[in-house]
Design brief:
The chain has about 900 residues and is of the alpha/beta class. The protein is built from 45 helices and 18 strands. It is about 55% helix and about 10% strand. The radius of gyration is 34 Å and the shape is globular.
Length: about 900
């Protein structure tokens, strides 16, 4: 191995400095025992402590069993196992507390054994005691406190002691210890509920009920931990310090996640090894597998106590200023312009703090109104807030960033915080903690519809006059007003609409383009550009968002297609799975937007679970390489929990291009497949699977067939998705639908959802047969769909579909044969449809054939029992013939039974 393959302490310090400066990734820090050992007993001493806690009768066996073991780590683990078997888990924990208390200055040596028996007293010492903190933890804590809030990710440690938490507390960072001794790992959702910095003790905590000292626990598989690691690794830089890398459950999880998923998760692992010899570090263990994995970098000769020393020197002056609550960043008062490229934001990328630097981009007229409303609230000492609302792409996000920076600079008496993604919920307890650290706090939140319910629940606390709290919010207008708490917040949170471009705004935008070298040459002057912006926005105002749409139109016009074509070509080089590229997924996102929700107003775009399922992965992977790249390169954004292009013109252009280049079928199929996969996995409505799964119902052939085939592939052995495909195939007006239905018919009973989906299958089969001229079989299939013994209990909806198909098929059959058996069937179906659904629905679905029916009063005078009985008798022969012809295996004994149909009609009549 070439030494250049590995870094040293100076390289790692520089890398951490870049992470701190750019603040574009989250830092997840993993500590082994290396740093704690500076003040706590080491493995040999702990082994001796375990012996001292052994029952007297067991010490001889301890010596016989443990002393011959040469490896210190294995000796320690086996000593813990033996102590557990002979004295119980509680004694093991007492021994561990005895070891940890040796670092507490407030506990005299002669009192350690007594205090170790009292867990509550131990916890109290963590909060108020004086501790010997290793220099490495002290320096890390000060560095960590200096980081931007969105960079401060969870801390993971194999240690039992609370020294990391104590060090962070002394640096001004509140912590929350999370013991994880077994695979009882908290879910990612539970971790998001934590309101302070989480520290995960993955082998257990010194005041907890158990630890992972026993070899079988240490090396056991931990699938729940793997899920949490996926969440933690996403878009993260993972720093590992003082960790030997032995094959415990954590290393198993890390190995799997890094080797298999690091690229998709956009994870980077920085492994800081104390030893300088690469061969000694790597050995034959897990690190040998990891060292050549994407995103893994090994640094040699790293002393954890010295690592953060030089990194800290550059950040120490700002540590106190930038320290902020977990999940929040303090809004910067100074923004570096180093390396700024204005084209990214101009082309639709979500704004960041560099875009919000005062004077860089013009403040819109709506933003000035927002500022005026906010200042009035600040002058009153808080108790309310403002929300920028409007469609996608109207400048809301930039406006609240600009205003947040301006407020942080001009109002130093206000503590200005920015909520980062994944921040803990806003609760009364959290607000009181914030108030304890600052008299006045302005909380800035983009996508504020996600916290609307939390704002309502805590309104009595922050909404009181001179409460010391104010909110600066932005939200999609539909999502804000459709939220259950919008009306309750109206008296406290004033809304300002962002929609459209005033002439002054257009002039300022054009001037900014010119000053940054972004003014298109074909426009010539800023006056021309401003005029085009105003006129373009005016055309779009009635149909879609105006600001970004006008920007696209003026900057690119007819060249938009070629720019997006280049983008798709680039995305095709980014492979996400064996047969799926980023272009395929982007195409699927655009298809859903173009077909279901052009302007992002309906909440029917692609969800994170759907996007990940297109690649066959869990939801966590959507926010990794996929959305990080699409957000940066293709201007995708969120409205609620759905993903959209920032303007419908982008989505429609992509859809046009994939039809032209022949990749459209793959995109539609991927969407249907993603929905099918989620349906198969038991996803809920919140996962957004239905819009993808049933996409074909909003399409025409051939796109409907493509999407439906994808749904079939995604669901596996499910009849429901095949019924949807049959419906899509009918649109082709070819014989394929009948051929497909005939292949399905003899084995429909084999599908696991047979009972719930068979009626729908029979109706779709009936319609297909009628369309191809097979009226008698069609009528028989529709009649079968009404029988009591077919599938689940007949309901009004299924009865309605079957009655409509039966009426139309019987009319056609009567016209073909002139027979008398089914002569009255259409009239009976019409009247039953009136009774079960409504007269309006009967007219809506059978109105076109109403003129072919005889006078209906005779049938309306019949009771439901007579109507359903006459209908069953009339259709019995045709139904049995249809079952025999198609090979459908149904348990029908005797004549058709329409009791359920009769009960439905009676219920509606009364």
């Amino acid at each position: 191995m070439d030494p250049i393959d590995f870094g040293d302490i100076s390289d790692l310090r520089i890398r951490l400095g870049v992470l701190a400066d750019e603040a574009d990734r989250r830092l997840v820090t993993v500590f082994g025992s290396g740093i704690s050992n500076a003040v706590l007993p080491g493995v040999p001493e702990l082994t001796q402590l375990f012996r001292e806690h052994m029952p007297k009768r067991g010490q001889a066996k301890f010596d016989e069993t443990i002393d011959p073991i040469s490896d210190p780590g294995l000796k320690y683990q086996n000593a813990a196992a033996l102590l557990t078997r002979q004295a119980g888990e509680s004694v093991v924990m007492r021994a561990i507390r005895t070891a940890v208390l040796r670092a507490c200055r407030d506990v005299r040596a002669e009192d350690v054994a007594k205090v170790a028996r009292d867990e509550e007293q131990c916890r109290a010492y963590v909060k108020t005691g004086s501790w010997n903190i290793p220099l490495g933890y002290e320096r890390f804590a000060r560095f960590f406190a200096s980081l931007d809030g969105k960079v401060r990710g969870p801390i993971i440690t194999t240690n039992f002691d609370p020294l990391i938490e104590v060090a962070l507390r002394e640096a001004g960072v509140d912590t929350h210890s999370v013991p994880v001794p077994t695979d009882s790992t908290p879910t990612p959702e539970q971790l998001r509920e934590v309101t302070s910095q989480p520290v995960l003790h993955i082998h257990g905590h010194w005041t907890g009920p158990a630890t992972s000292n026993v070899p079988s626990r240490i090396t056991s598989d931990r699938p729940k931990l793997q899920r949490v690691l996926q969440e933690l690794l996403r878009n993260s830089v993972v720093l590992v310090v003082g960790y030997s890398g032995w094959l415990d459950g954590f290393m198993k999880s890390l190995r799997e996640r890094v080797l298999d998923d690091a690229d998709l998760l956009q994870a980077e692992v920085l492994w800081a090894a104390y030893e300088r010899d690469a061969n000694a570090v790597i050995g034959q263990g897990v690190l040998k597998e990891l060292v050549n994995a994407p995103g893994f970098t090994l640094y040699l000769g790293i002393d954890g106590h010295e690592l953060f020393h030089d990194v800290l020197d550059e950040n120490v002056d700002t540590a106190e200023e930038t320290s902020s609550p977990f999940g929040y960043s303090r809004v910067p008062r100074q923004i570096s312009a180093k390396g700024y490229d204005p084209a990214h934001f101009a082309d639709g990328r979500q704004p960041d703090w560099t875009d919000a630097e005062p004077g860089r981009w013009p403040t819109l007229s709506s933003a000035l109104q927002l500022e005026e409303e906010l200042l009035q609230g600040l002058e009153r000492g808080g108790g309310g807030g403002v929300v920028a609302i409007g469609p996608l792409g109207e400048g809301k996000s930039l406006a609240i960033r600009q205003l947040a920076v301006k407020t942080a600079v001009s109002r130093p008496d206000w503590n200005v915080l920015w909520r980062e993604p994944g921040a803990p919920p806003i609760t009364g307890a959290w607000l009181r903690e914030i108030r304890a650290t600052a008299d006045r706090t302005l909380i800035c939140i983009d996508e504020a519809d996600l916290v609307q319910d939390e704002l309502v629940a805590t309104k009595d606390l922050w909404g009181a006059e001179d409460s010391g709290f104010a909110f600066l919010l932005a939200s999609h207008d539909r999502l804000w007003w459709q939220g259950s708490g919008a009306s309750s917040l109206r008296s406290h949170v004033h809304d300002v609409l962002f929609h459209g471009i005033r002439p002054a705004d257009a002039t300022n935008i054009a001037a900014a383009w010119q000053s940054m070298g972004l003014l298109p040459k074909h426009l010539g002057t800023t006056e021309t550009a401003a005029g085009r912006l105003v006129s373009s926005a005016g055309v779009m105002a009635a149909q879609t968002n105006t600001l970004f749409g006008a920007v696209l139109d003026v900057r690119y016009g007819t060249e938009l297609g070629s720019r997006i074509e280049d983008l798709l070509r680039k995305f095709r080089e980014i492979r996400l799975a064996e047969s799926v590229t980023l272009a395929d997924v982007f195409g699927g996102i655009c298809v859903m937007q173009h077909v279901l929700d052009k302007d992002g107003n309906m909440g029917r775009g692609a969800s994170r679970p759907v996007i990940a399922a297109m690649v066959g992965l869990d939801e966590v992977f959507a926010d990794g390489k996929i959305l990080a790249t699409l957000g940066r390169e293709a201007a995708v954004t969120f409205a609620g929990n759905r993903v959209y292009c920032r303007h419908p013109a982008i989505a429609s252009t992509v859809v046009d291009l994939i039809h032209q280049d022949g990749t459209a079928e793959k995109a539609y199929t991927l969407v249907g497949m993603a929905g099918g996969r989620l349906r198969e996995a038991g996803a809920g409505e919140a996962d957004g699977y239905r819009d993808a799964y049933l996409l074909s119902r909003d399409l025409k052939a051939p796109e409907a067939v493509w999407a439906a085939k994808g749904a079939v592939e995604g669901t596996g052995h499910l009849l429901e998705s095949r019924v949807t495909l049959l419906r899509a195939l009918r649109q082709e007006r070819q014989s394929r639908c009948i051929e497909y239905a005939r292949r399905l018919a003899p084995r429909v009973h084999e599908y696991r959802d047979f009972r719930s989906a068979v009626r729908a299958f029979l109706v779709e089969f009936s319609i297909s047969m009628r369309d191809e001229g097979h009226a008698q079989t069609s009528a028989g299939l529709a009649a079968l769909a009404l029988d009591d013994r077919i599938g689940f209990t007949l309901d009004g909806s299924r009865a309605g579909y079957a009655l409509v198909s039966l009426a139309k098929s019987a009319l056609r059959l009567n016209a073909q044969t002139g027979g008398t058996t089914t002569a009255e069937v259409p009239e009976m179906c019409y009247v039953l449809l009136e009774l079960i659904r409504s007269k309006e629905e009967a007219q809506r679905f059978l109105g076109p054939v109403r003129t072919q029916l005889r006078i209906l009063e005779e049938y309306r005078s019949l009771s439901p029992i007579k109507l359903s009985g006459k209908l069953a008798a009339a259709m019995d022969t045709a139904a049995k013939a249809a079952a025999q012809e198609t090979g459908i295996r149904l348990e029908l004994n005797g004549v058709l039974s329409f009791d359920s149909l009769r009960r439905l009609a009676e219920t509606k009549r009364h």
